[in-house]
From TrEMBL, chain A:
Ranges of compositional bias, category Pro residues: 498-514
UniProt KW rRNA-binding keyword: no
A family per Pfam: MoCoBD_1
Keywords: Molybdenum, Oxidoreductase
Disordered: region residues: 446-532
Signal in keyword set: no
Protein name (database record): Aldehyde oxidase and xanthine dehydrogenase, a/b hammerhead domain
Top-level lineage group: Bacteria
UniProt feature, compositional bias: Basic and acidic residues: 446-457
Location of the Aldehyde oxidase/xanthine dehydrogenase a/b hammerhead domain: 34-145
Annotated Polar residues bias: 522-532
Automatic annotation (TrEMBL), chain B:
InterPro entries hit by this protein: 2Fe-2S-bd, 2Fe-2S-bd_dom_sf, 2Fe-2S_ferredoxin-like_sf, 2Fe-2S_ferredoxin-type, 2Fe2S_fd_BS, Beta-grasp_dom_sf, Diverse_Oxidoreductases
Enzyme Commission code(s) on record: 1.2.5.3
Enzymatic class: oxidoreductase
PROSITE patterns linked to this entry: 2FE2S_FER_1, 2FE2S_FER_2
UniProt KW Lyase keyword: no
Domain 2Fe-2S ferredoxin-type: 4-80
Protein name: Carbon-monoxide dehydrogenase small subunit
Gene Ontology molecular functions: carbon-monoxide oxygenase activity
Record keywords, A-Z: 2Fe-2S, Iron, Iron-sulfur, Metal-binding, Oxidoreductase
Length: 532, 158
């Protein structure tokens, strides 16, 4: 049974609880138990065609030639779609909020950058005929050296994965090749610490493995629009991404989604809608593009891998006085959302602890691996795994109980966090106390009496003197414009088939945040502001 | 390609279709009969969301050739409701929050029905065994196991 701890944050709640503590039926439950919930694939449309893609067999290769002569003659083939058929064949998901450069084609043109990258799409009368035609496409590759390790990718002379970022690292605000966090003097504090513990942590990519695979059905409507049934977790994200890639206004599309057969972050990348819609545009028929299980598991984007080096300085009494972290987030071959993951990684590297000297470098690295995407807490999860392993080791090093060690170092209301935000509504101490109580884990009285609302702030609220690093700060060039601005696309590798249509009246620009417009602020305006 | 005529019973109703050789039962049900309750999850017998009953026995429709069910009786989730009322298993799944995204639910319910039809009061281990071929990525299985046990013992709201 649910236990409510009403004593915590009591003064911030009106306690007018009507629903918490009693069962309420989900609105979609009746559909689920009767099998009448409509998933994207439960729509059977008259004359529906089936789209399948040819995927790269190479992790990194130049495409010399794509031979489709045999595939064109294959039974049931309606249309072969190449990269040159995609109106804007270069995109990055977060360009919708002006973050990052377009770096990923819908269909590879000159080169493939990961095994499984889509090269060509075939639309056929049946799934079987689409598969048969796919098997007849011959791609002539010139294999290139590949790089699969984040640290190798950053070494001089490493193969360039993604030419948009020639140093294999995402560039923030057109200037910075990594995220850095500087708070106090970590080197000096490490030099005077009683103990220093340096460790290496690593987390592999993780596949979401939803029971329903990614997919979409796009159908021409009679009013010139397209109805799109999709598995997406991010409907409006997908609408705008498709509008950009297909170079049409977003009201060309009527997207229908909402019933998702498991997503967990693996259905936010707009993987299938653009090609399904393009197929429908080019054939005038409904087109279905759904991942098979192998595609989902092998080539669907995973949670990105991370490698983290932590060097902590701790005093004999258990206080952590310095933390120095170098972390690498494996973005795979393209950016997608990993640039954002690295920002979160940097913000979370002190963990829920007050450490007076923090130094962090976090790189978003390109490798010839499957592009990574969202998954619960991406960017934070591996960092927290590393930090909490480290906390246990530090407690052991100074001979302290791990629960008490966490309470001692926990942040408290009023403390200054390393990224220069005041800690508010902290509750780590209370969480540890409850966990200890539930686990019947004895902690000493002074730790049982500790509170997040006591002993914070004061000198702990100060921003310590932080050594400045002498390095030229190049002026940031203007941000890349999104498709909303209808500026010419400069980075496409292939000339567009036809000149772009004359600019339609652009919508008013989004309101500028009043705070300094760095990435984190923009993100909070998209994904919701933090609880104050 | 020549079509194969095929007749079978679908949720108590006789149906007749023409299938291509090699068509699996999942595709036949979804695309030719129009019963969208069995789902495609893997097409290789790994996930169980396409599970149906053939003559009362649990089968993976994605690995069953359609032509092999001629003259047999197929049950899917579409036939589980009893008139306008939910089957006790459906009621129990709803009451116990045994579905989240809902995509494995059709297969889970068919696996549960196959179990209760032959063993009306299974043990917890027997329930776990019965749904061991069905993958759920959301619930963590506990609510599903509890729902099936509740349906078996009649502890289901009307």
């Amino acid at each position: 049974m649910l236990e409510l701890r009403k004593d915590i944050f009591a003064d911030e709640r009106d306690d007018n609880l009507k629903e918490i503590g009693k069962g309420t039926q989900r609105q979609d439950m009746l559909g689920h138990v009767t099998g009448t919930s409509n998933y994207f694939n439960d729509h059977k449309l008259q004359g529906m065609l089936h789209l399948k893609v040819v995927r790269s067999t190479q992790a990194h290769a130049r495409i010399r030639r794509i031979d489709t002569t045999e595939a064109e003659r294959s039974a049931g083939v309606r249309r072969i779609i190449r990269g040159t058929d995609v109106p804007v064949n270069l995109n990055t998901l977060l360009s919708l909020i002006n973050f990052g450069k377009d770096d990923e084609p819908s269909l590879a043109v000159d080169k493939v950058r990961y095994k499984g990258e889509p090269i060509l799409a075939i639309v056929a009368d049946s799934e079987r005929e689409a598969f048969e035609a796919i098997a007849k496409v011959k791609v002539d590759y010139e294999p290139l050296p590949a790089v699969f390790d984040v640290e190798d990718a950053l070494k001089p002379g490493a193969p360039v994965v993604n030419e948009t970022y020639p140093k294999n690292a995402f560039i923030y605000h057109d200037v910075y090749d990594h995220q850095r966090l500087r708070f106090g003097d970590a080197d000096a504090a490490l030099a005077s610490a009683d103990h220093v513990l340096e460790q290496r942590y690593q987390m592999s990519p993780i596949e979401h493995a939803p029971t329903e695979t990614n997919g979409a059905i796009a159908a021409p409507d009679t009013n010139g629009r397209y109805v799109v049934y999709t598995s997406t977790q991010a409907l409006f994200f997908s609408v705008d991404t498709c509008a950009k890639i297909l170079d049409v206004p977003s009201n060309t599309f009527h997207f229908i989604g909402g019933t998702v057969g498991g997503g967990f972050g693996g259905k936010v990348d707009t993987l299938t809608e653009p090609l399904a819609i393009l197929g429908a545009m080019l054939t005038g028929r409904p087109v279905r593009y759904v991942f098979g299980r192998e595609e989902e598991m092998q080539y669907g984007p995973p949670r990105g891998a991370e490698r983290i080096y932590i060097k902590d300085g701790v005093m004999r009494d258990g206080r952590i006085v310095a933390r120095k972290i170098r972390a690498y987030f494996d973005s795979g071959a393209y950016t997608r959302l990993s640039s954002y993951a690295a920002v979160k990684c940097a913000a979370h590297l002190p963990g829920p602890y007050t450490i007076p000297n923090v130094y962090g470098d976090v790189y978003c690295v390109f490798t010839n691996r499957t592009p990574a995407t969202a998954m619960r807490g991406f960017g934070v999860t591996a960092m927290d795994f590393a930090i909490e392993c480290q906390m246990d080791k530090l407690a052991n090093l100074v001979g302290m109980d791990p629960m008490e060690f966490r309470i001692l170092n926990a942040y408290r209301d009023g403390d200054m966090k390393a990224h220069r935000r005041e800690a508010k509504n902290t509750a780590l101490i209370e969480c540890v106390q409850v966990a200890a109580e539930k686990a019947k884990w004895p902690i000493r009285d002074e730790f049982r009496r500790a509170s997040s609302r006591k002993d914070g702030g004061g000198s702990r609220a100060a921003i310590p003197p932080t050594p400045t690093e002498s390095r030229a700060r190049p002026a940031a060039p203007a941000q890349q414009r999104t498709s909303y601005d209808r500026a010419p696309v400069t980075a496409t590798r292939e000339p567009p088939r036809e000149p772009p249509p004359p600019p339609t009246t652009p919508p008013p620009p989004p309101p500028r945040p009043s705070a300094p417009s760095h990435g984190a602020t923009r993100f909070s305006s998209v994904f919701g502001t933090r609880r104050r | 390609m020549s079509k194969i005529p095929l007749q079978f019973r679908h949720n108590g109703r006789d149906v007749a279709i023409f299938v291509d050789g090699g068509t699996n039962l999942l595709v036949a049900l979804r695309e030719l009969i129009g019963d969208m309750t069995p789902k495609f999850g893997c097409g290789q017998g790994g996930c169980g969301t396409c599970s149906v009953l053939i003559d009362g026995e649990l089968h993976l429709s994605c690995l069953t050739l359609a032509e092999t069910v001629a003259g047999r009786s197929i049950e899917t989730l579409d036939g589980m409701k009893q008139g306008p009322n939910l089957h006790p298993l459906q009621r129990a799944f709803a009451d116990h929050f045994a579905a989240q995204c809902g995509y494995c639910t059709p297969g889970m319910l068919m696996a549960a029905k196959a179990l209760l039809d032959r063993n009306p009061s299974p043990s917890r281990d027997e329930v776990i065994e019965a749904i061991s071929g069905n993958i759920c990525r959301c619930t963590g299985y506990e609510p599903i196991i509890n729902a099936i046990l509740a349906a078996a013992s009649g502890r289901v709201s009307a």
